[in-house]
Amino acid sequence: MKFSEKNLFERITIAATGIWAAFFEEKNFRIQLVCAAIVAVAMVLLRLDRIEASILLLTMFSVLALELINSQIERFLDIIQPELHAKVKRIKDFSAGAVLISVVGSVIIGVIILLPHLLAL
Question: For 33-44, what is the mean pLDDT?
């Protein structure tokens, strides 16, 4: 059966399997998921408005998605070039840099949104 012939439930199951595998195999993904959960709890407790919550959710999911893409790139490169190679290292560094930029941006956005609410308590 070709992928295009699979139904929506099968496609979602495949995607969920990838997320599940990342949770158990990728330490950074677990750390980022825990941070996202903490922020989600803070969003509920602080009763953020829809715009603030939407911005935080968008940044959290962006970081998680980029981490999955980073892991995918690293694993693919490990298959096609198992030995250490300067060009492969550079590609991995770029990929990790993209995740770092998204994490830093998310932290800044989180502070901008959450800090005033926390200080008001």
Answer: 97
- Report the CATH number at residue 105: 1.10.287.3610
Q: Is residue 5 part of a domain?
A: no
DSSP state of 47: T
Exposed e or buried b for every residue in 22-48, given b needs 16+ CB within 10 A? Answer: beeebeebeebbebbeebeebbeebeb
The pTM of the full predicted model, rounded to 2 decimals, is 0.89
* Average pLDDT of the segment spanning 80-93: 94
Quote the number of domains for the chain.
Answer: 1
Outline where DSSP puts E strands in 1-121: none
Q: Please classify residue 119 by burial: count the beta carbons closer than 10 Å to its beta carbon, then call 0-12 exposed, 13-18 middle and 19+ buried.
A: exposed
Q: Which domain holds residue 115?
A: 31-119
Looking at residue 6, what is its pLDDT?
Answer: 79
- Return the pLDDT at 36: 97
The answer to whether residues 29 and 67 touch, using CB atoms and an 8 Å cutoff, is yes
